[in-house]
Amino acid sequence: MKQFISVKDITNLNELVNEALALKKDPFAFETLGKGKTIGLVFLNSSLRTRMSSQKAAQNLGMEVMVLNAGQDAWNWEFEEGAIMNGTTVEHIKDAARVLSEYCDIIGIRCFAGLKNKEEDIQEKTLSLFMKYATVPVVSLESATLHPLQSLADCITIAEHPVTKPKPKVVLTWAPHIKSIPHAVANSFSEWMQASDVDFVITHPKGYELDEKYTQNAVVTTNQEEALKDADFVYVKNWSSFTDYGQVLPTKEDWMLTPEKLAVTNSAKIMHCLPVRRNVEVSDAVLDSENSLIYEQAKNRIYSAQVVFKKILEQL
Ligand code: CP
């Protein structure tokens, strides 16, 4: 593996999930693989899980870890090619990427969608520029359109809860939020579910259609109750409108997930990538129920990162 920015960078999802589960059983089995190697974790945006789980994953493999909060602590980056830098930006991303490559054997970078310029976001302007100038493998720690380490952790979590029918029904349901939220987690989950052996349904209010690029083979409905029927896994996530780019649109129905709504499911397991707005997106009663997998997902972030770093280290 030379980079990890989407599901397209893996060759066999089942094998990767099984390898991650083996690492979960024996996290230090490859504790010398990363000896003498350094991973740089670069954050242009906030993080709890990605930051800590990636650090732990790298440490389990014996790597040195350097973290740069580029959105706060570093020089203010310039993202325009050919810019005359006589304004507030101090360092061009091309120089930052090249210099960081001198210090690190692998670089992870988090660069959210700005939700202001749709074209720039869907073209992954920041990640693409960084990868153009970095000279070492790059891992997405969540980009403008995708969050592959989260999705792999979600696949690992689903695999740990087999169902007694040929394929589980997995439902991605939109949830309310007070802020404008990017589409990366939802896009990515959709991509990875379509690569998995599951029946996958997406439900959201009208106006919240995701980019069709990521939902091509999924069943999509605006009827949440219909979608939730017989679901084995319900993944809750907010995203802003893609059509009215970045806007929070008014909704007629209440889309917050509650125990009452789950009554039509097959005692569904509940998933959310976190952080979650409790009692806005999902009620406490659901999040704190015995069917909630939210902390298992967070734990599996370690092993999704660890298996990806291991695959890259093996090819350095
Ligand atoms: N789920 C997730 O990526 O969490 P953080 O934003 O805290 O890293």
UniProtKB/TrEMBL annotation:
Which reaction(s) does its UniProt entry say it catalyses? N(2)-succinyl-L-ornithine + carbamoyl phosphate = N(2)-succinyl-L-citrulline + phosphate + H(+)
Q: Which residues bind N(2)-succinyl-L-ornithine?
A: E142, H177, K237, R277
Binding-site residues, carbamoyl phosphate? S47, L48, R49, T50, W75, R110, H147, P148, L149, Q150, C273, L274, R301
GO terms in the biological process aspect are: citrulline biosynthetic process; L-arginine biosynthetic process via ornithine
Q: What class of enzyme is it?
A: transferase
Question: Which Enzyme Commission number(s) are on file for it?
Answer: 2.1.3.11
Q: Which domain of life is it from?
A: Bacteria
Q: Which Gene3D superfamilies does the entry mention?
A: Aspartate/ornithine carbamoyltransferase
Q: In which pathway does it act?
A: Amino-acid biosynthesis; L-arginine biosynthesis
Ranges for the Aspartate/ornithine carbamoyltransferase Asp/Orn-binding domain? 185-309
Which protein family is named in the record? Belongs to the aspartate/ornithine carbamoyltransferase superfamily. SOTCase family.
Which purpose does this protein serve, as stated in its record?
A: Catalyzes the transfer of the carbamoyl group from carbamoyl phosphate to the delta-amino group of N(2)-succinyl-L-ornithine to produce N(2)-succinyl-L-citrulline. Is essential for arginine biosynthesis.
Extract the HAMAP family matched here.
SOTCase
Q: How does it assemble?
A: Homotrimer.
What protein is this chain from?
N-succinylornithine carbamoyltransferase
The source organism is Flavobacterium sediminis
Q: Which gene encodes it?
A: argF'
